Sequence to fold (497 residues):
Amino acid sequence: MKIRYRLLGAVLILALLLAAFYYAKSGQKLTEDRPIFGANDKITLRLWYTDEALTDYLTNKVVEFNNSSRKSRVELECVSGLEYLEEIGKASIEEENYPDVFIMTHDSLEKAYLAGLASEVESSEFLTDEANGYSPAALNAVSYKDKYIAYPYYFETSSLLYNKTYLENEVKSRLQAAIDAAEGEAAQAEIDAAEGDIEEGDTEAAENEVIELDDAQVQAELENILPKTIEDILVFANEYNAPDTVESVFQWDVTDIFYNFFFVGNYLNLGGTAGDDASQIDVYNENTINCMSFYQQLNQFFAIDEGAVSYDKVLQDFIDGKTVFTVATSDAVAKIEAAKAEGKCSFEYGVTPMPALNEQYATRTMSVTDCLVINGFTEHMSEANALAKFLCSEDTETMYTMSGKLAANSLVNYSNGSLASYVSVYGNSVPMPKLMETSNFWVLLEIAFANIWDGSDVNQTLRELSENIKLQITGEEVHEEVLPDATVIITDGQEEE
Fold:
């Protein structure tokens, strides 16, 4: 009998050990109120986000993930964006329903990583695989000290928006003028031929030169008329026979750095390509001086009142047909389409890459990438990475149709060609830096733009900005060597005689 009881006791101990081993391997705690067996025996992952526009889309994706995953289930929570990272840190330290994965803009990644709230991705090959379509901008956005510490999810950037109907009408008008001129020459040739001034064969040649107006020709000429430089817009403005509804050929929000940054984006360096290197600060150089001088000179051609302008007003003016060109983020597409559906917008529109300033100075727009961050405190690292990869693997435009967000995956096909244009612009954009020491740089740069637009000395303004930001980073006063003043000069687009 004693042997039987001993055997029974050994079996019970072995069962308990196996149960403990099962829980340890599954990542669950023995104190968790979850069934040991059955379909619901999954690891729970928590996903936090702040943008309510994502709720329907993420809910659908979570249901899809929960149904397909054999190991994990996801709980979704939309939380306040106020002190977001601080709340994640507090919940993680106190182990109170903290997120295993959270969505955050990439410019806060350094802060998250140094706080232990962002961990290196499990497989960098996933990000660098061309099949996943991540552009250099997307990869730079989630890079920190030569590590990938998040997954690019969706983005925002700006580009040039234009009224396609206005441009087509202008093209047709110019082509018709060419036709009329050709017909006039042909008619005059007939008169001259009747008077014996030219041979009959010459008359037939003149008649054959008459231009036939067709849609293919209009579209081809439309591509030619799209501005390749800001100076091209000035030339267009001089030649444009604008309808009465047009109040300004080109208007943008000069008070917001997101829509102004393209002027200096190709020549201003704040933290290197990944925005994480405090030793790479180059704000004050001859290129930025000339680009900002160009910007200042535009004030005499496009008298935009800083006190009256805002992005919402600029976009509404465009929707109302009051402007031909503007600088807009991708949200403009949905707003224009909504206005068209309501019968409040009757024209066609398009998006083209941001033009260069002139033949010498190029432009680059700024971008912000929202990314999926794996919490460094998670007890389920592999499962959290699997969830992030699943969410990043969206290969349709469903994210956009349900949330208005454009996926960082550049291989997603959009039915609206304007959205594809934004994806292309994003690929060559400048991600906002991650450096915590330069967090107020954008406010300072915005002030510098405002002062320069109002006439402040370009050279001095940029020099003081550079000295200020370097003081913040190094803690020591820096006196920049004074550089030559700007040499760039723009006119109204007409060649001087």
Residues 1-39, 205-210 have pLDDT under 50 and may be disordered. The first strand starts at residue 43 and ends at 49. The radius of gyration is 30 Å. The chain is about 45% helix and 15% strand.
